[in-house]
Fold:
Amino acid sequence: MSFLKRITCLAAAMFAAVGLCPETNAGAPDVSAKAAVLIEADSGRLIFGKNENARLSMASTTKIMTALLLLQNCRPDQTIDVTPEMIAVEGSSMGLAAGDRVNRDALLYGMLLSSGNDAANAAAYMVSGGKDEFVSLMNKTAADMGCKDTSFETPSGLDGENHYSTAADMARIAQAAMQNDDFAFAAEQRQATVTFGEPPTSRTLKNHNRLLSLYDGCCGIKTGFTKKSGRCLVSCAVRGGVKLICVTLNAPDDWDDHMKLYDYGFSLLERYTPESDVLPGTIAVTGGEAEFVPVEHSLPALTLNRGDGKRMIIKVYAPGFLYAPVKYGQVIGHAEYVLDGETIAELTLTAGDDVDIRKSEKKPSLWQGIGDFFARLFG
Structure:
């Protein structure tokens, strides 16, 4: 597991001990949504919840999973020829027609901006060769993410008896999706020009997510609506280095719900970066060609309750010296970030260079000495 992943996993596990109490939502605004959740995007920490584990239909926010799987399984230049069965779907469309040739990125924008059900179906065929196979992949991926109350029936989000999720699960899926750079870039675009069709034609697709223009710092991600699900919205916003993800299901006033929840979340949290001078810059080396070896580390920035950084204690566990040889990247210690007695993150200290054993001067052998004597004697 990588260093950053270790930081994230440990922080996520420990935030419950040092974070807000989501059951009380003290000071939180009232929202119109039947179910809602606000999380800190890096750790998954719950900031606000309302019926967050209630199973509800989630409409086209389903396409977050579809788009993520498309990006994970297909090349940017990969294409597919559109067949009648791919576009035999009701609802919103990016404008595909049978016989069109379309590439992966056009389908991505067709789903995230135009919310095209035709794009979602075509993506399912591009990834898995069919909708049923793709839906199985969607459900397996959701389970692997820890989504215990999610069931997909379609790639597009059209209503189905066993097509449902929760605000909490949709936040988990959104969190994973926004860690994909291609997804995050596409979800933030207010419009995009793509080319598809036969012959190829350029088309401009516009994003349905009005929050991109309504709220400063909004950076995605997906809207949804059916008569059964009502208005659904999954969004992400960043301010001052703090990144939040908000989900509302069946929310008559979803734009306002998200803006109020973001204002609430940003008022509570801040980004904290520890001072680097609390960590050792070098460690002494005994018996080495160099007397010291530089120490490498990566100080993680953490999202904390406002003011908590002032109480943070950093405990360093490293030896006073090392014996040569020392190899670059060798683990030589670690540090822990402790808040109110709880370790909320840790980092690894590694050697920043090689230090070989010091070579002592060797006395020449007898035969080498005799050879040197005659060499000097005869010039």
User: Anything to note?
Assistant: Residues 55 and 122 are 27 Å apart (CA to CA). The first strand starts at residue 35 and ends at 40.
